[in-house]
């Protein structure tokens, strides 16, 4: 059930009214509504995996309590380790088992050895990468005394299975999320209205930008003898497609949370305006970056603290490799991660790793030429990363780069302008301009600084009309659901 | 070791690692108050503190540090063990 479907709209309207209209004073009611809605939502998508979700939730709930009630530090640590092993083990089994089998088989074959390794038919549970990360962070945070263990099973189950975020994030952190459910929520009109605005912007990005990019990409590569410049156009469309699709999904998830009075963690902060690679990752898939920073990068850099910059480089390379592999069982993801890891090295050596970005502007709020140049460089490098990310294999990615590396790349391809969906370029520019103007806001449709109501509504209508007019009618899946 | 002695030694470390002679430690000081206090210099500072006071931090303890006052309190408690 996609957020963009009428089925989901009906589902959410029912949940919304049950949540706010019945037993308004009872927090347990609201928490039960979330729980039932979440399991129904998950069950519609993949009912066979409900037992896995429920059992994992029960085990980690118990582990959290055991970590705190253990009499010794050793015992507490042991329960934490059990949690980490179970969480990582679940993820590895479902997502990477066949990948390891295949990789070992290929390796032995390359050495001339015959092996009898067979891949299993493993069905990957939807959202497994997201809910296992939530479970792992819970046991670590309880162990680190960042939070008390949750002693309300329904609240904990809501945290794990919260339907707006279970399929594709954002990956909420336990302390911030659980504390919101431990108190009753009263309907906040301002929060709900802001949620609607954010959903609207998410719909615009998904339906108008991402889906039209998808069609334009298909059109580009459906033609015979694609010139080099169109390979470049294809790569640019691909990065905007991924951004609009995933950040659009995140905006909708956060907006749905706001409609239920729950703040979901932010996932994107206008990444194309980043002026260095560290800043890019602080703005792109922020909830994953923060998770990996806290649970992988920081412990690694702590262990290697005596090695100075070298230790930091090793930590960031391992961290980014895992960020890449988190996306799935293909070497392209590992190379994508390593590629980004390597981009961090000059930053670490020059000491700009944690430098806070200061966007300089000139007249009319336009970016300063130096800032703009830096943004374009980072955008170009990230576009190269997306080519690797989207390729079927590392060989295919190299082939793509080879196809682009032709003198033809410098010739503007007039053929793109012949495609029915060529207006997508203008739509992307429109999205970027709006986001640049609104870059200090949580989302681009936060128009609270426009004093006049009619002015705000005019913009909402334009966005709604754009969604109706440019609807690609492709009803495409969200890209990040497959991760 | 007295608290003032710890603060004096810590001030020397902070000035060296963060390369600023003007740093005056306050209990409520955080990474936001010092320009060059980032992931790298943070770990370098921790490493220097461990050497200077002959103590070893656990990651769990580091995660709980929110401001300089927490660091001083952790050092004090480790020295008393």
Might you state the CATH topology name of chain B?
Non-ribosomal Peptide Synthetase Peptidyl Carrier Protein, Chain A
- What is the assembly state of the chains in this entry? heterodimer
User: Care to count the β-strands of chain B?
Assistant: 0
Q: End-to-end distance of chain B, in Å?
A: 12 Å
Order of helices and strands of chain A: HHHHHHHHHHHHHHHHH
Average pLDDT for all residues of chain B: 87
Structural class of chain A: mainly alpha
How does the helix and strand content of chain B classify structurally? mainly alpha
Total number of helical segments of chain A?
17
The low-confidence parts of chain A are none
- The helix content of chain A is 55-70%
Radius of gyration of chain A: 23 Å
Beta-strand fraction estimate of chain A: under 5%
Q: Class of chain B, according to the CATH hierarchy?
A: Mainly Alpha
Largest sheet of chain A: none
For the termini of chain A, the CA-CA separation is 17 Å
SSE topology sketch:
The complex is a heterodimer of chains A (about 475) and B (about 80).
Chain A: H1 6-21, H2 27-46, H3 50-69, H4 73-110, H5 128-143, H6 153-161, H7 174-181, H8 189-222, H9 228-259, H10 277-283, H11 286-303, H12 308-326, H13 331-350, H14 369-390, H15 394-404, H16 424-437, H17 453-469
Chain B: H1 3-17, H2 39-53, H3 59-64, H4 68-80
């Amino acid at each position: 059930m996609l957020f963009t479907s009428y089925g989901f709209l009906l589902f959410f309207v029912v949940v919304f009214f049950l949540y706010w209209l019945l037993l308004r004073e009872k927090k347990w009611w609201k928490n039960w509504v979330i729980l039932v809605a979440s399991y129904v939502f998950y069950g519609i998508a993949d009912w066979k995996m409900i037992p896995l979700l429920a059992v994992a939730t029960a085990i980690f709930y118990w582990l959290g309590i055991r970590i705190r009630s253990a009499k010794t530090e050793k015992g507490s640590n042991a329960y934490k380790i059990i949690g980490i092993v179970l969480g990582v083990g679940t993820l590895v089994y479902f997502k990477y088992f066949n990948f390891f089998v295949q990789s070992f088989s290929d390796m032995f074959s390359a050495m001339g050895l015959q092996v009898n390794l067979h891949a299993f038919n493993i069905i990957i549970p939807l959202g497994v990468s997201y809910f296992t990360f939530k479970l792992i962070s819970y046991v670590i945070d309880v162990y680190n005394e960042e939070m008390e263990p949750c002693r309300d099973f329904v609240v904990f189950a809501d945290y794990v299975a919260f339907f707006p975020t279970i399929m594709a994030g954002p990956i909420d952190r336990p302390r911030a999320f659980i504390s919101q459910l431990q108190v009753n929520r009263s309907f906040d009109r301002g929060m709900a209205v802001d949620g609607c605005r954010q959903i609207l912007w998410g719909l615009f990005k998904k339906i108008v930008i991402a889906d039209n990019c998808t069609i334009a990409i298909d059109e580009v590569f459906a033609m015979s003898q694609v010139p080099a410049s169109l390979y470049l156009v294809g790569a640019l469309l691909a990065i905007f497609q991924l951004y609009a699709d995933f950040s659009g999904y995140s905006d909708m998830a956060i907006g749905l949370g706001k409609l239920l009075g729950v703040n979901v963690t932010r996932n994107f902060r206008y990444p194309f305006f980043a002026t260095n690679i560290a800043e890019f990752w602080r703005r792109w898939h922020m909830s994953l970056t923060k998770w990996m920073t806290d649970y992988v990068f920081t412990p690694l850099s702590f262990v290697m603290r005596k090695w100075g910059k070298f230790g930091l480089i090793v930590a960031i390379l391992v961290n980014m490799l895992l960020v890449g592999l988190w996306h799935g069982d293909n070497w392209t993801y590992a190379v994508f991660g390593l590629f980004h890891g390597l981009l961090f090295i000059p930053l670490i050596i020059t000491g700009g790793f944690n430098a806070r970005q200061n966007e300089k502007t000139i007249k009319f709020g336009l970016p300063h030429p130096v800032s703009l140049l830096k943004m374009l460089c980072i955008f170009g490098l990230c576009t190269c990363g997306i080519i690797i990310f989207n390729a079927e294999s590392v060989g295919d990615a190299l082939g793509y780069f080879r196809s682009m590396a032709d003198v033809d790349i410098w010739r503007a391809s007039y053929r793109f302008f012949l495609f029915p969906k060529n207006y997508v370029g203008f739509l992307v520019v429109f999205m970027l301009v709006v986001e640049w103007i609104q870059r200090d806001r949580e989302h681009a449709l936060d128009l609270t600084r426009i004093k006049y109501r009619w002015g705000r509504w005019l913009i909402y209508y334009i966005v709604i009309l754009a969604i109706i007019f440019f609807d690609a009618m492709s009803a495409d899946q969200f890209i990040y659901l497959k991760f | 070791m007295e608290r003032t002695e710890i603060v004096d030694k810590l001030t020397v470390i902070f000035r060296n690692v963060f390369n600023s002679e003007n740093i005056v430690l306050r209990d409520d000081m955080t990474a936001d108050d010092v320009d060059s206090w980032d992931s790298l210099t943070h770990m370098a500072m921790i490493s220097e503190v461990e050497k200077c006071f002959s103590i070893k931090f656990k990651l769990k303890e580091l995660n709980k540090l929110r401001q300089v006052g927490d660091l001083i309190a952790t050092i004090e408690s480790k020295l008393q063990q």
